[in-house]
Amino acid sequence: MADENVDYIVEEVMKRISKRFQITVEASGRHLHLTREGINILFGVGYKLTKVKELSQPGQFACSERVSLIGPKGTIKNVVILGPERSKIQVEISKSDANILGIKAPIRESGKLEGSAGITMATEKTSLTIEEGLIIAKRHIHLSPQDAKLFNVCDKEIVKAKVYSERPLIFDDVVIRVSSEYKTTMHIDYDEANACGYIKGSTAKIMR
Amino acid sequence: MADENVDYIVEEVMKRISKRFQITVEASGRHLHLTREGINILFGVGYKLTKVKELSQPGQFACSERVSLIGPKGTIKNVVILGPERSKIQVEISKSDANILGIKAPIRESGKLEGSAGITMATEKTSLTIEEGLIIAKRHIHLSPQDAKLFNVCDKEIVKAKVYSERPLIFDDVVIRVSSEYKTTMHIDYDEANACGYIKGSTAKIMR
Fold first, then answer.
1. What's the pLDDT tens digit per position in A126-174?
2. Chain A within 8 Å of B166 (Cβ-Cβ)?
3. CA of A84 to nearest chain B CA: how many angstroms apart?
4. What is the DSSP string of B140-183?
5. Is A37 in the B-facing interface, judged by CB distances under 8 Å?
6. Whole-prediction pTM value?
Protein backbone atom coordinates (compact mmCIF):
# COMPACT_ATOMS: atom_id res chain seq x y z
CA MET A 1 0.00 0.00 0.00
CA ALA A 2 1.31 3.46 -0.83
CA ASP A 3 2.63 5.51 2.10
CA GLU A 4 0.09 8.28 1.54
CA ASN A 5 -2.71 5.71 1.80
CA VAL A 6 -1.34 4.49 5.12
CA ASP A 7 -1.05 8.11 6.28
CA TYR A 8 -4.65 8.72 5.28
CA ILE A 9 -5.93 5.61 7.08
CA VAL A 10 -3.94 6.38 10.25
CA GLU A 11 -5.27 9.93 10.27
CA GLU A 12 -8.86 8.79 9.77
CA VAL A 13 -8.56 6.16 12.53
CA MET A 14 -7.02 8.71 14.90
CA LYS A 15 -9.78 11.21 14.12
CA ARG A 16 -12.52 8.68 14.76
CA ILE A 17 -10.94 7.34 17.96
CA SER A 18 -10.54 10.88 19.22
CA LYS A 19 -14.17 11.68 18.38
CA ARG A 20 -15.30 8.59 20.23
CA PHE A 21 -13.65 9.86 23.38
CA GLN A 22 -15.45 13.20 23.27
CA ILE A 23 -18.33 13.58 25.70
CA THR A 24 -21.20 15.93 24.96
CA VAL A 25 -21.45 18.73 27.51
CA GLU A 26 -24.82 20.06 28.68
CA ALA A 27 -25.37 23.14 30.81
CA SER A 28 -28.15 22.66 33.37
CA GLY A 29 -30.18 25.72 34.24
CA ARG A 30 -31.76 26.13 37.67
CA HIS A 31 -34.56 23.62 38.22
CA LEU A 32 -36.33 21.58 40.85
CA HIS A 33 -37.60 18.05 41.39
CA LEU A 34 -40.81 17.69 43.41
CA THR A 35 -42.32 14.93 45.50
CA ARG A 36 -45.98 13.89 45.23
CA GLU A 37 -46.61 15.76 48.46
CA GLY A 38 -44.87 18.90 47.15
CA ILE A 39 -47.01 18.83 44.00
CA ASN A 40 -50.15 18.39 46.15
CA ILE A 41 -49.27 21.49 48.19
CA LEU A 42 -48.11 23.72 45.31
CA PHE A 43 -50.58 22.71 42.58
CA GLY A 44 -53.43 20.87 44.32
CA VAL A 45 -54.05 17.31 45.51
CA GLY A 46 -53.61 14.77 42.70
CA TYR A 47 -52.35 17.38 40.22
CA LYS A 48 -50.42 15.91 37.29
CA LEU A 49 -47.38 17.82 35.97
CA THR A 50 -47.48 18.66 32.25
CA LYS A 51 -44.58 17.14 30.34
CA VAL A 52 -43.32 19.51 27.62
CA LYS A 53 -39.86 18.23 26.71
CA GLU A 54 -37.87 15.02 27.05
CA LEU A 55 -34.37 15.58 28.48
CA SER A 56 -31.15 13.85 27.47
CA GLN A 57 -31.32 11.43 30.41
CA PRO A 58 -33.88 8.75 29.56
CA GLY A 59 -37.20 9.15 31.42
CA GLN A 60 -36.44 12.69 32.61
CA PHE A 61 -38.58 15.55 31.32
CA ALA A 62 -39.23 19.28 31.71
CA CYS A 63 -42.71 20.42 32.75
CA SER A 64 -44.66 23.51 31.80
CA GLU A 65 -45.32 24.40 35.47
CA ARG A 66 -43.09 27.04 37.04
CA VAL A 67 -42.39 28.22 40.59
CA SER A 68 -40.58 31.15 42.16
CA LEU A 69 -37.67 30.59 44.52
CA ILE A 70 -37.72 33.03 47.40
CA GLY A 71 -34.67 33.82 49.53
CA PRO A 72 -33.95 36.46 52.17
CA LYS A 73 -32.21 38.70 49.60
CA GLY A 74 -34.08 38.07 46.38
CA THR A 75 -36.53 36.08 44.29
CA ILE A 76 -35.97 34.06 41.13
CA LYS A 77 -39.11 33.64 39.06
CA ASN A 78 -40.07 31.11 36.46
CA VAL A 79 -38.02 28.14 37.64
CA VAL A 80 -38.67 24.95 35.71
CA ILE A 81 -39.86 21.72 37.34
CA LEU A 82 -38.34 18.46 36.10
CA GLY A 83 -40.22 15.18 36.23
CA PRO A 84 -40.82 12.46 37.17
CA GLU A 85 -41.67 12.84 40.86
CA ARG A 86 -38.93 11.99 43.35
CA SER A 87 -38.88 10.79 46.94
CA LYS A 88 -37.33 14.07 48.13
CA ILE A 89 -37.66 17.64 46.90
CA GLN A 90 -34.38 18.79 45.34
CA VAL A 91 -33.77 22.34 44.08
CA GLU A 92 -30.65 22.91 41.98
CA ILE A 93 -29.25 26.39 41.45
CA SER A 94 -25.93 28.02 40.52
CA LYS A 95 -23.65 30.00 42.83
CA SER A 96 -24.88 33.17 41.06
CA ASP A 97 -28.45 32.20 41.88
CA ALA A 98 -27.46 31.52 45.51
CA ASN A 99 -26.03 35.05 45.65
CA ILE A 100 -29.26 36.52 44.24
CA LEU A 101 -31.35 34.60 46.79
CA GLY A 102 -28.92 35.37 49.62
CA ILE A 103 -28.63 31.72 50.64
CA LYS A 104 -25.45 29.75 51.27
CA ALA A 105 -26.14 26.57 49.31
CA PRO A 106 -23.62 23.71 49.43
CA ILE A 107 -22.09 22.04 46.35
CA ARG A 108 -23.49 18.52 46.39
CA GLU A 109 -24.10 15.47 44.26
CA SER A 110 -27.72 14.91 43.34
CA GLY A 111 -29.55 13.08 46.12
CA LYS A 112 -27.07 13.99 48.86
CA LEU A 113 -29.31 16.48 50.61
CA GLU A 114 -28.56 15.95 54.29
CA GLY A 115 -27.68 19.28 55.86
CA SER A 116 -28.18 21.15 52.58
CA ALA A 117 -29.91 24.56 52.49
CA GLY A 118 -33.59 25.39 52.90
CA ILE A 119 -35.68 27.33 50.39
CA THR A 120 -39.20 28.64 49.81
CA MET A 121 -40.96 27.74 46.56
CA ALA A 122 -44.05 29.69 45.53
CA THR A 123 -46.78 29.63 42.91
CA GLU A 124 -49.24 32.50 42.48
CA LYS A 125 -51.57 30.92 45.01
CA THR A 126 -49.44 29.24 47.63
CA SER A 127 -45.95 28.48 48.89
CA LEU A 128 -43.92 25.67 50.39
CA THR A 129 -40.77 25.94 52.51
CA ILE A 130 -38.34 23.07 52.90
CA GLU A 131 -35.61 22.92 55.55
CA GLU A 132 -33.19 21.11 53.25
CA GLY A 133 -33.01 20.24 49.55
CA LEU A 134 -31.36 23.32 47.99
CA ILE A 135 -27.98 22.53 46.42
CA ILE A 136 -25.49 23.72 43.84
CA ALA A 137 -25.07 20.58 41.74
CA LYS A 138 -21.57 19.16 41.70
CA ARG A 139 -20.38 18.82 38.11
CA HIS A 140 -20.63 15.23 36.95
CA ILE A 141 -20.49 12.89 33.99
CA HIS A 142 -23.32 10.44 33.37
CA LEU A 143 -22.04 7.31 31.67
CA SER A 144 -23.66 4.17 30.37
CA PRO A 145 -21.85 1.00 31.59
CA GLN A 146 -20.54 0.45 28.04
CA ASP A 147 -19.05 3.95 27.86
CA ALA A 148 -17.64 3.64 31.39
CA LYS A 149 -15.75 0.59 30.11
CA LEU A 150 -14.63 2.48 27.00
CA PHE A 151 -13.38 5.42 29.10
CA ASN A 152 -11.95 3.07 31.72
CA VAL A 153 -13.68 4.76 34.66
CA CYS A 154 -16.00 3.49 37.38
CA ASP A 155 -18.98 4.81 39.31
CA LYS A 156 -18.10 7.52 41.89
CA GLU A 157 -14.59 7.96 40.47
CA ILE A 158 -13.27 11.53 40.45
CA VAL A 159 -11.67 12.65 37.17
CA LYS A 160 -10.55 15.79 35.39
CA ALA A 161 -12.44 16.84 32.27
CA LYS A 162 -11.15 19.24 29.66
CA VAL A 163 -13.78 21.28 27.83
CA TYR A 164 -12.97 22.34 24.28
CA SER A 165 -14.14 25.87 23.52
CA GLU A 166 -13.12 29.47 22.98
CA ARG A 167 -12.40 29.66 26.71
CA PRO A 168 -10.95 26.22 27.44
CA LEU A 169 -10.49 24.91 30.93
CA ILE A 170 -10.04 21.67 32.78
CA PHE A 171 -12.61 20.90 35.45
CA ASP A 172 -10.99 19.13 38.33
CA ASP A 173 -13.06 17.10 40.76
CA VAL A 174 -15.67 15.82 38.31
CA VAL A 175 -17.66 12.87 39.64
CA ILE A 176 -18.40 9.87 37.43
CA ARG A 177 -21.88 8.35 37.65
CA VAL A 178 -22.50 5.06 35.89
CA SER A 179 -25.93 3.53 35.31
CA SER A 180 -27.64 1.55 32.60
CA GLU A 181 -30.29 4.28 32.73
CA TYR A 182 -27.85 7.01 31.72
CA LYS A 183 -26.94 8.49 28.39
CA THR A 184 -23.31 9.61 28.34
CA THR A 185 -23.28 13.37 28.99
CA MET A 186 -21.32 15.81 31.14
CA HIS A 187 -23.43 18.19 33.24
CA ILE A 188 -22.25 21.60 34.41
CA ASP A 189 -24.20 24.61 35.65
CA TYR A 190 -24.44 28.01 33.97
CA ASP A 191 -21.62 29.63 35.98
CA GLU A 192 -19.38 26.83 34.80
CA ALA A 193 -20.82 27.04 31.28
CA ASN A 194 -20.08 30.76 31.07
CA ALA A 195 -16.62 30.29 32.54
CA CYS A 196 -15.66 27.63 29.98
CA GLY A 197 -17.19 29.31 26.93
CA TYR A 198 -19.82 26.58 26.55
CA ILE A 199 -21.96 26.59 23.46
CA LYS A 200 -24.49 23.96 22.39
CA GLY A 201 -22.40 21.08 21.07
CA SER A 202 -19.33 21.72 23.23
CA THR A 203 -17.51 18.52 24.13
CA ALA A 204 -15.21 17.36 26.91
CA LYS A 205 -12.54 14.73 27.31
CA ILE A 206 -11.73 12.80 30.47
CA MET A 207 -8.15 13.39 31.61
CA ARG A 208 -6.01 11.75 34.26
CA MET B 1 22.01 16.10 62.26
CA ALA B 2 19.24 13.76 63.34
CA ASP B 3 17.06 12.38 60.57
CA GLU B 4 13.91 13.88 62.04
CA ASN B 5 15.55 17.32 61.97
CA VAL B 6 16.37 16.90 58.30
CA ASP B 7 12.81 15.77 57.67
CA TYR B 8 11.51 18.83 59.47
CA ILE B 9 13.75 21.21 57.50
CA VAL B 10 12.88 19.59 54.17
CA GLU B 11 9.19 19.84 54.97
CA GLU B 12 9.46 23.49 55.99
CA VAL B 13 11.46 24.38 52.85
CA MET B 14 8.93 22.55 50.65
CA LYS B 15 6.03 24.33 52.35
CA ARG B 16 7.62 27.75 51.91
CA ILE B 17 8.64 27.13 48.28
CA SER B 18 5.12 25.95 47.53
CA LYS B 19 3.64 29.02 49.22
CA ARG B 20 5.92 31.28 47.20
CA PHE B 21 4.50 29.84 44.01
CA GLN B 22 0.91 30.56 44.98
CA ILE B 23 -0.65 33.54 43.22
CA THR B 24 -3.49 35.48 44.84
CA VAL B 25 -6.69 35.28 42.81
CA GLU B 26 -9.04 38.26 42.53
CA ALA B 27 -12.52 38.19 41.02
CA SER B 28 -13.28 41.34 39.01
CA GLY B 29 -16.86 42.51 39.00
CA ARG B 30 -18.32 44.38 36.04
CA HIS B 31 -16.77 47.83 35.69
CA LEU B 32 -15.82 50.49 33.19
CA HIS B 33 -12.92 52.77 32.40
CA LEU B 34 -13.80 56.22 31.02
CA THR B 35 -11.98 58.77 28.89
CA ARG B 36 -11.89 62.48 29.73
CA GLU B 37 -14.45 63.02 26.99
CA GLY B 38 -16.70 60.27 28.38
CA ILE B 39 -16.61 61.85 31.83
CA ASN B 40 -17.43 65.26 30.31
CA ILE B 41 -20.50 63.83 28.59
CA LEU B 42 -21.77 61.67 31.47
CA PHE B 43 -20.93 63.89 34.46
CA GLY B 44 -20.25 67.37 33.07
CA VAL B 45 -17.27 69.17 31.52
CA GLY B 46 -14.23 69.09 33.78
CA TYR B 47 -15.89 66.77 36.33
CA LYS B 48 -13.41 64.93 38.56
CA LEU B 49 -14.19 61.32 39.52
CA THR B 50 -14.30 60.62 43.28
CA LYS B 51 -11.75 58.02 44.35
CA VAL B 52 -13.12 55.75 47.09
CA LYS B 53 -10.85 52.72 47.13
CA GLU B 54 -7.36 51.80 45.95
CA LEU B 55 -7.25 48.55 43.95
CA SER B 56 -4.59 45.85 44.06
CA GLN B 57 -2.93 47.14 40.89
CA PRO B 58 -0.88 50.23 41.83
CA GLY B 59 -2.47 53.53 40.72
CA GLN B 60 -5.86 51.95 39.93
CA PHE B 61 -8.86 52.95 42.01
CA ALA B 62 -12.64 52.54 42.29
CA CYS B 63 -14.81 55.68 42.13
CA SER B 64 -18.08 56.47 43.87
CA GLU B 65 -19.79 57.38 40.57
CA ARG B 66 -22.00 54.73 38.98
CA VAL B 67 -23.62 54.24 35.57
CA SER B 68 -26.23 51.91 34.12
CA LEU B 69 -25.39 49.68 31.17
CA ILE B 70 -28.28 49.44 28.74
CA GLY B 71 -28.64 46.64 26.20
CA PRO B 72 -31.45 45.58 23.88
CA LYS B 73 -32.62 42.91 26.34
CA GLY B 74 -31.89 44.38 29.75
CA THR B 75 -30.24 46.98 31.96
CA ILE B 76 -27.57 46.56 34.62
CA LYS B 77 -27.60 49.35 37.18
CA ASN B 78 -24.98 50.62 39.55
CA VAL B 79 -21.84 49.70 37.57
CA VAL B 80 -18.63 50.97 39.12
CA ILE B 81 -16.19 53.27 37.30
CA LEU B 82 -12.48 52.60 37.74
CA GLY B 83 -9.89 55.35 37.50
CA PRO B 84 -7.64 56.83 36.32
CA GLU B 85 -8.95 58.08 32.97
CA ARG B 86 -7.90 56.10 29.90
CA SER B 87 -7.44 56.93 26.24
CA LYS B 88 -10.38 54.67 25.25
CA ILE B 89 -13.61 53.77 27.01
CA GLN B 90 -13.55 50.11 28.06
CA VAL B 91 -16.49 48.32 29.67
CA GLU B 92 -15.81 44.89 31.19
CA ILE B 93 -18.65 42.48 31.92
CA SER B 94 -19.13 38.74 32.40
CA LYS B 95 -20.87 36.34 30.02
CA SER B 96 -23.85 36.32 32.43
CA ASP B 97 -24.01 40.11 32.17
CA ALA B 98 -23.82 39.90 28.37
CA ASN B 99 -26.80 37.54 28.47
CA ILE B 100 -28.77 39.97 30.67
CA LEU B 101 -27.98 42.87 28.32
CA GLY B 102 -28.61 40.77 25.22
CA ILE B 103 -25.28 41.71 23.64
CA LYS B 104 -22.72 39.36 22.12
CA ALA B 105 -19.51 40.65 23.71
CA PRO B 106 -16.17 39.11 22.71
CA ILE B 107 -13.61 37.69 25.14
CA ARG B 108 -10.66 40.06 24.88
CA GLU B 109 -7.53 41.19 26.62
CA SER B 110 -7.75 44.65 28.16
CA GLY B 111 -7.03 47.33 25.54
CA LYS B 112 -7.78 45.11 22.53
CA LEU B 113 -11.05 46.76 21.63
CA GLU B 114 -11.05 46.75 17.83
CA GLY B 115 -14.27 45.17 16.63
CA SER B 116 -15.55 44.62 20.17
CA ALA B 117 -19.20 45.26 21.07
CA GLY B 118 -21.03 48.56 21.51
CA ILE B 119 -22.93 49.61 24.65
CA THR B 120 -24.98 52.46 26.07
CA MET B 121 -23.96 53.93 29.43
CA ALA B 122 -26.40 56.12 31.31
CA THR B 123 -26.55 58.34 34.37
CA GLU B 124 -29.82 59.77 35.67
CA LYS B 125 -29.42 62.81 33.45
CA THR B 126 -27.77 61.66 30.26
CA SER B 127 -26.40 58.77 28.25
CA LEU B 128 -23.50 57.89 25.99
CA THR B 129 -23.34 55.15 23.37
CA ILE B 130 -20.08 53.72 22.11
CA GLU B 131 -19.71 51.58 18.99
CA GLU B 132 -16.94 49.48 20.47
CA GLY B 133 -15.36 49.02 23.91
CA LEU B 134 -17.53 46.34 25.55
CA ILE B 135 -15.63 43.13 26.30
CA ILE B 136 -15.60 40.06 28.49
CA ALA B 137 -12.12 40.26 29.99
CA LYS B 138 -9.86 37.34 29.14
CA ARG B 139 -8.53 35.78 32.34
CA HIS B 140 -4.98 36.91 33.01
CA ILE B 141 -2.16 37.02 35.52
CA HIS B 142 -0.47 40.32 36.32
CA LEU B 143 3.16 39.76 37.26
CA SER B 144 5.95 42.01 38.41
CA PRO B 145 9.19 41.40 36.39
CA GLN B 146 10.74 39.80 39.51
CA ASP B 147 7.85 37.36 39.90
CA ALA B 148 7.83 36.63 36.15
CA LYS B 149 11.44 35.54 36.59
CA LEU B 150 10.56 33.47 39.65
CA PHE B 151 7.70 31.75 37.80
CA ASN B 152 9.79 31.45 34.63
CA VAL B 153 7.15 33.03 32.37
CA CYS B 154 7.24 35.99 30.01
CA ASP B 155 4.84 38.72 28.90
CA LYS B 156 2.03 37.49 26.62
CA GLU B 157 2.80 33.83 27.37
CA ILE B 158 -0.23 31.53 27.64
CA VAL B 159 -0.25 29.22 30.66
CA LYS B 160 -2.59 26.99 32.62
CA ALA B 161 -3.47 28.02 36.17
CA LYS B 162 -4.91 25.72 38.79
CA VAL B 163 -7.17 27.34 41.37
CA TYR B 164 -7.28 25.74 44.81
CA SER B 165 -10.77 25.72 46.29
CA GLU B 166 -13.78 23.63 47.15
CA ARG B 167 -14.51 23.44 43.41
CA PRO B 168 -11.02 23.18 41.92
CA LEU B 169 -10.32 23.63 38.25
CA ILE B 170 -7.51 24.42 35.89
CA PHE B 171 -7.98 27.45 33.70
CA ASP B 172 -6.42 26.85 30.35
CA ASP B 173 -5.51 29.76 28.09
CA VAL B 174 -4.51 32.26 30.80
CA VAL B 175 -2.49 35.18 29.48
CA ILE B 176 0.58 36.43 31.35
CA ARG B 177 1.07 40.20 31.58
CA VAL B 178 4.36 41.47 32.94
CA SER B 179 5.02 45.07 33.94
CA SER B 180 6.97 46.87 36.63
CA GLU B 181 3.67 48.60 37.41
CA TYR B 182 1.92 45.35 38.31
CA LYS B 183 1.40 43.59 41.59
CA THR B 184 1.29 39.81 41.07
CA THR B 185 -2.39 38.78 40.96
CA MET B 186 -4.59 36.53 38.85
CA HIS B 187 -7.79 38.15 37.58
CA ILE B 188 -10.94 36.22 36.70
CA ASP B 189 -14.52 37.37 36.30
CA TYR B 190 -17.47 36.37 38.48
CA ASP B 191 -18.66 33.55 36.21
CA GLU B 192 -15.21 32.05 36.52
CA ALA B 193 -15.11 32.83 40.25
CA ASN B 194 -18.40 31.02 40.84
CA ALA B 195 -17.33 28.10 38.68
CA CYS B 196 -14.08 27.59 40.60
CA GLY B 197 -15.49 28.11 44.08
CA TYR B 198 -13.51 31.33 44.56
CA ILE B 199 -13.47 32.89 48.00
CA LYS B 200 -11.43 35.89 49.14
CA GLY B 201 -7.91 34.55 49.60
CA SER B 202 -8.14 31.78 46.98
CA THR B 203 -4.82 31.12 45.29
CA ALA B 204 -3.66 29.69 41.98
CA LYS B 205 -0.56 27.98 40.69
CA ILE B 206 0.87 28.26 37.20
CA MET B 207 1.02 24.86 35.48
CA ARG B 208 2.60 23.70 32.27
1. 999 999 999 999 999 999 999 999 899 999 999 999 999 989 999 999 9
2. yes
3. 28
4. EEEE-HHHHHHHT--TT-EEEEEEESSS-EEEEEEEEEE-TT--
5. no
6. 0.83
